[in-house]
Amino acid sequence: MTGLEVLATSPLLIRIVRLTRVVLQYLIGTTIHNIFFNPLNKYPGPTIASVSRIPLTYAFLCGRAPHWLARQHEKYGSIVRIAPDELSYIAEEAWKDINGPTTAFRYGQKRSEDFFAYFFNKQSTEESIVTASDDDHRRLRKIFARAFSKQALTVQEPLITQKVDALIEKLGRASQAGNTVNMVDLHCLTVFDIMADLILGETLNLLVDDSPHAGWVRSVPAYLATSFFLAALAKFSIIRLFLSYFALPLLTPQYKYFQKIMGHKVDVRLSVKGGRGDIVHFLTDLKEGTPLSRPELENAVLILMAAGSDTTPSIICGLNYLLLAHPVVLAKAVEEIRSAFKADKDMTWDAVFKLEYLGACIDEAFRVYPPTTTGFPRQVTSMSGAWICGKFVPGGTTVCVSPFAAYHFPSNFHNPDHFIPERWLPQAEAKYANDKKAVVQPFSTGPRDCVGRMVANFMIRVIICKMLWNFDFVLEPGQENWAKQRAYGNWQRTPLMVKVYSVNRD
Ligand code: HEM
After folding, report:
1. CA-CA to 492 of 20 to 30 Å: which in 5, 263, 273, 371?
2. Can you tell me which residues bind heme (predicted)?
3. pLDDT band at 482; cut points 50, 70, 90
């Protein structure tokens, strides 16, 4: 027998050949099904995307998914098939049809669970607000809603203001010393400082130089990016299988650090009896209703710290940059803020919400630089399917409004890539009359929309008001294209270097 003949009779080789044949048959079969028989065929999109999710995943892994989605919508229109079982939307009515409530689905479609598969510690099987069934979500949301009510947050207003004052002091010192500062770092530290006190009742003093907790703050973006990254890869069943055994070495040190420290912080917080009205108090106190179980609480604290501490600094950094990059807009915002307040202490909750031009700048920053770039996908219920934007979508399909693509779509906005706060004003020029403003929903819509939107909106306003009232800022050379960043679900922010000058009021 020749070597080749021996090899041909090897049981291992025979198995490999059989396995390869089965895999090839499966791939050819699904390809033919996806191209010719899949009910999503009536939706336009790149042919390759109807066969495989590789193009979408590749764009995601390159950090270019928001821009890739925007290009597909420009080419194929307002609904695009972006993967064999996934549709992307950019029309206003998609929000309601997908997220609810509709007559058929009072609770909207459920969030895709695999999106959050790598958010939580695998040992914890308890549900979290982001993955809960409709019934569990209703129960959890009621408790969260009390914690984030205006009444509960008003008690926390002095605490928030005090942290922003620490930022102002730090900027004051930088201005005196003539130092250049990295606003991304400062906004992340300030918001995290607020979040830790608001949620866990823990004072971190992050704006004091050399804070030992700064590592915790800096782990947040990488923690989020890692979990989104793995979730994107796990959409392929073979990779999901591999990850179920070997995910650990792929987790970044920041991811592991963030998970570990969160568990520890919950222990520390629970060892303190009472609490001063922080969010954990609301989530655990019997007087506030059924308290959360321990695993539910850990998941809740993790999601709150991660959700609030990346999105909020993201929009504040984006707004900070966009204002400094547009001096005419900046001058109008400064004029409004400096004439509205006689003193720094006048910037109260109610007062900062009255500034119309600042409100327009914030809306426009959310549009141009949305903190959640690719949205939170939903899975159409497998029982019945659903009607979305007037078209039937079969059960099991993943659907999502893609924020960046929707907000930059030329038919949705006049001059979509330009920062023009004026379009949001009641007296906007006629050319902006057809802008589809209701498509901009940075906090999402429906029963599972953002529970932290009120506190986030206050933080954005009070931070920008206090900064612009006290200082003039100038972008350092080389920062002109700061917003051109990669995104892995969240923006991968690079340092935003600015010079600070105290306002002379003599
Ligand atoms: C500018 C800042 C923020 C933005 C843009 C933002 C955006 C979002 C979005 C888009 C969702 C998903 C909703 C969906 O799936 O339809 C969400 C959910 C959520 N956010 Fe925020 N968020 C921000 C700040 C915060 C803050 C400060 C907190 C809390 C401290 C927070 C807590 C949550 C929670 C708990 C959920 C899940 C709500 C639920 O399932 O009922 N967010 N957020």
Report:
1. 263
2. 450
3. very high
Note the pLDDT tens digit of each residue in 342-372.
Answer: 999 999 999 999 999 999 999 999 999 999 9
Buried b (16+ CB within 10 A) or exposed e, 376-401: bbbbbbeeebbebbeeebeeebbbbb
CA–CA gap between residue 129 and residue 136 (Å, rounded): 8
DSSP characters over 157-225: HHHHHHHHHHHHHHHHHHHHHT-EEEHHHHHHHHHHHHHHHHHH-----TTSTT-TTHHHHHHHHHHHH
Q: Reduced to 3 states, what is the DSSP secondary structure of residue 491?
A: strand
In words, the CATH class of domain 39-502 is mainly alpha
Q: Is 465 annotated as a binding residue?
A: no
Whether pLDDT at 452 is above 60: yes
Query: Which of 504, 505, 502, 506 has its CA nearest to residue 179?
Result: 502
Q: What is the distance in A from the centroid of ligand 1 to the CA of 453?
A: 7
CA-closest residue to ligand 1 atom 31: 452
As a whole number of angstroms, the distance between CA 150 and CA 156 comes to 10
Question: If DSSP codes are grouped into helix, strand and coil, which group holds residue 398?
Answer: strand
Q: Which range is least confidently modeled, 41-45, 106-110, 259-263, 497-501?
A: 259-263
Residue 177 burial (10 A CB sphere; 0-12, 13-18, 19+): exposed
Please determine, for residue 125, whether its predicted confidence score (pLDDT) is greater than 80. no
The protein residue whose alpha carbon is closest to atom 14 in ligand 1 is 449
15 alpha carbon – ligand 1 mean position (Å): 50
Q: Taking residues 36-56, what's their average pLDDT?
A: 93
Residue 326: CB partners within 8 Å, gap ≥ 6? 419
Residue 173 to residue 277: CA distance in whole angstroms: 33
pLDDT digits (tens, 9 = 90+) for 299-328: 899 999 998 999 999 999 999 999 999 999
Q: Is the CB of 374 under 6 A from ligand 1?
A: no
| Domain ranges across the chain | 39-502
Asked whether 309 lines ligand 1 (CB < 6 A), one says no
Q: What is the pLDDT of residue 123?
A: 57
Q: To test the ligand 1 pocket, which listed residue (292, 450, 490) has its Cβ within 8 A of the most ligand atoms?
A: 450
pLDDT score of 406: 98
Centroid of ligand 1 to alpha carbon of 20 (angstroms) = 45
Name the pairing type of β-strands 180-182 and 497-502: antiparallel
Residue 204: CB within 6 Å of ligand 1?
A: no
Model pLDDT for residues 415-450, shown as the tens digit of each residue: 999 999 999 999 999 999 999 999 999 999 999 999
Ligand 1 centroid to Cα of residue 456, in Å, is: 9
10 Å Cβ neighbour count for 215? 13
pLDDT of res. 1: 63
The residue whose CA is least distant from atom 43 of ligand 1 is 450
187 touches 462 (CB < 8 A): no
